[in-house]
Amino acid sequence: xxxxxxxxxxxxxxxxxxxxxxxxxxxxxGVTDTIMVGxxxxxxxxxxxxxxxxxxxxxxxxxxxxMALDPVISQAVGARDEExxxxxxxxGLVMALALTAFTCATFVPVEWVLRVLDQPPDxxxxxxxxxxxxxxxxxxxxxxxxFRQSLQAMHRVAPVLWTVLxxxxxxxxxxxxxxxxxxxxPALGVAGSSIATSVSRWAMALAVLSMSGRQVWHHLTPxxxxxxxxxxxxxxxxxxxxxxxxxxxxxxxxxAAALLMxxxxxxxxxxHQIAINLASFTFMVPLGVxxxxxxxxxxxxxAGDEDQARRSAIAGIFIGASFMCASAFVFLxxxxxxARSYTGDADVILLTVMLIPIAGVFQVFDGIxxxxxxxxxxxxxxxxxxxxxxxxxxFIGLPVSWVLAFRLGGGAVGMWWGIxxxxxxxxxxxxxxxxxxxxxxxxxxVID
Length: 448
Hints:
The chain is an all-alpha fold. The protein has one domain (about 5-440). Helices cover about 85% and strands about 0% of the residues. It has helices at about 5-40, 40-65, 70-80, 80-105, 110-115, 125-135, 140-155, 160-180, 190-210, 215-220, 230-265, 265-300, 305-335, 335-340, 345-380, 385-405, 410-440. Helix 1 packs antiparallel against helix 12, helix 7 runs parallel beside helix 9 (about 190-210) and helix 11 runs antiparallel to helix 17 (about 410-440).
């Protein structure tokens, strides 16, 4: 077994921490939208949250598909293959255009979909308006993902971090103008929030492009004729589509759990939302470690250094698991203080205090599975994690949640222990897959 050195751990932290900060910054934009729309009315809050949820569900597949850039570009960087970096970045933009068309097509029937899902009739018009107004922001959202993944693979995270910080300020300012009607703008409410977000997404794509210096422009120009070759694009999609499916199924499993929680009652739903929000916040760190691990493993494979790839993989899993263990300790020791920071309702606090320690347990497995998936992505193995996610979340976790919550009368607590079982299954199976892949000879992903 090849153990990581202190240098390996430092390299992982240097890349993982700013990437995690970027993830937190992107999450903060959604939180800001929710808070500012929430000052209008409960109905506006529900409509904004529902519209943002629809955008995220429809867009997460494309976002995941573009993660194919992680192994392709990081391995090319490791091999110092400038032409391969340029072709991958350009193909990323081509894929972003195609994914934009697909995602926007799913936005058209938004009103019908929300009615089929039996959402509140008074909320549907504003939520549908939010989604339709968001259509112009889909391509810059995907373009930003392309630039972000490319720069992270090149170890250039600072432009992305500054872009996200500035975008948060711009988004808050535009929300103030368009939602409430300032500086000559009419008060547009929920629609104003969507306008602000779309403008901010264009600003993000253009800002990260301008702040990246020659790193991105150098690879965008001149445009390579072979970029549009069908076979290499097909290979890129073969890498990316399983990641997109994995992201969609993983998020879908948590969305299904939330819907089942709503069946149990309002108090259960509120407690679930608080606990899952806390877990989502801490999850941004192992998510950053996952991306850093994919990049550093890819660099090592591109350079032909398999031992370094193994050390980077182990370093990533160790750091991700260690952080989540520390986070779990906080959740286990201070559940009441955490619950009180969200609500003063005694019934909600009582149930939340029971769920937060379970969240502490499940996020340890969540952190491990996230980083293990990053290891496999760096290697170029994207099909296995998608299959493992289906098995762990949909064939194990959700059925166990349903049995514990409804058949055995466990309610919300039973539902969450089912989530723990599903995540544990995914984490353990992925770790087995990582061990198998690291034990083999690792080759660079072939695109051209």
